[in-house]
Structures are given as C-alpha cells and as structure tokens.
Known about the structure:
Helix content of chain A: 25-40%
CATH architecture of chain A: 2-Layer Sandwich
Strand order of the largest sheet of chain B: 1-2-3-4-5
Largest interface: A-B, 24 and 24 residues
Shape of chain A: globular
Structural class of chain A: alpha+beta
Order of helices and strands of chain A: EHHEEHHEE
Structural class of chain B: alpha/beta
Number of domains of chain B: 1
CATH class of chain B: Alpha Beta
CATH superfamily of chain A: Histidine kinase-like ATPase, C-terminal domain
CATH topology of chain B: Transcription Regulator spoIIAA
Radius of gyration of chain A: 15 Å
Shape of chain B: globular
Number of helices of chain B: 3
Oligomer: heterodimer
Number of domains of chain A: 1
Radius of gyration of chain B: 12 Å
CATH architecture of chain B: 2-Layer Sandwich
Helix content of chain B: 25-40%
Amino acid sequence: MTAGRLRLTASTRVADEIAVFVRSLAARGGLAERQAYRLRLAADEITTNIAAHGYRGAGGVVEIEGDVDDELVWLRIEDDARPFDPRGHDPRQVLHTDPTARQEGGLGLFLALSGLDDFGYEYADGRNRNTLIMRRSGHDGRRCE
Amino acid sequence: MSFDVTLHLEQRAASMRLVGELDARAAPRVHELINEAAAHELDRLVLLMSELTYLSSAGLRCLVFAHQKMSPGVEIVLVGTRPKVAETIQLTGFDRSVTMQDPASAP
C-alpha cells in the first residue's frame, strides 16, 4: 500500500499533475526545498522522456506512486513502452559539446539522475520501472512548504 | 503551473521577462518571442530571470535556440537567476555560453 498513486497518459500536459504530486510527497517527507525541486525535476524529465521517446509522442500509460518511510522519500514511475534503462544514457558527449551548438535532447536524463540520491531501474512484467529516491536526512534545514 | 513571458525591445537590446515555470509545455512560447527578437538588429538579449521558479531541460534548450537564432556576437545575459535554476544551468554547462548577472550589477 502506497501513499499516493497517479495514472496518466504520457504527454507534456501531465507535468502539472506530477508537480503537485511530488510537491505533496516532498512536503510530507520533510525534504529541503532543493531536494524537493530536484525530485520534481527528475520526475518531470523521466516522464517527458517516456512520452517523447518511449511512446514516441503517441501517448501511453504512465503510473506514478510514491511514499515516505523512515529514511527515504521514493517515487516509482512505470510505463509500458519498450525497455529503456536511463542509467545507460551517457551524457558526456553532450556535456562536452559547445552549449551553443548542442542538438536537441540529451540533457534531461542527466539532470534527472544527477539530482537524486539514488535511482533504480528494472524491466519486469512488460513494464519499465524507474525508482527515484531522496534521503530524508539530507535536508539542509529549509523544508519545503 | 503557470508561465508568462513578455518581450521588450529598446534600440539594440531586447529583454524578456520570464515568470513562473519554464518546461516543455511553456518552451514554444519562449521560442516565438526569441524569433521575434531575432528579427531586429541587437547587441544583447537580456533574460530577466528573477521570477522564474522552475527550469527543465526543455527550458534549457531555449538558450540553445536563442544562440542559434541570434546573430553572431549578440550577448545573452541572464539577470537575477534563482539559485535552484542557476544550479541547473551550471550543471549542464550553459553558464559558459551566457553572462550571468545579479540584479544589482545589471546595467
């Protein structure tokens, strides 16, 4: 049993619902503002990537659930698109390119994964399952509202 | 979440005021105004960032778009960027392609 669950059709229009969901979860977990921001950014980038590349803009189910335990705030994002492990994305080529000459894409997953305390991925039962983790002890004293 | 962007043109400078959350849904509106600004002869494009509360990778791509649309030599200046937004810009190296200023030091 988890504290919250969202079932969405992947598109850029779901960003608001995800933001509200993550903000609520972060507040309940007492995350610092910076942690809450980065968790929301990671969720946004992962779901945007699913919509654009996993489902190739055609729409598809994205399920988001999350909860707070003693040490962690976790968020799980699942989709039915073809298997894709975000950890296999190598951002070095993009990061080493002159910012003014970069092609579209390539930074979202880097932002997502670099901002989290931990990230897990598995492909099970025909679904991609991304787990985003923030440690509650990492707050800097400024809790999000 | 809301987003608003306005463009002000004055002589050879353009300023864009960004308010709210710049994500994949909002980015096309910024692109439109960048196109509008790029139609003028400019020395600098100033992005007023102090009211921008969120920036995703789609928003970052607006900076690339601005570089590609502006004539060579047009300086892109970001004024008053909030720390969490600035962190995203710096993490991805975009601070190397723009000038980042505090509001107090902006002309």
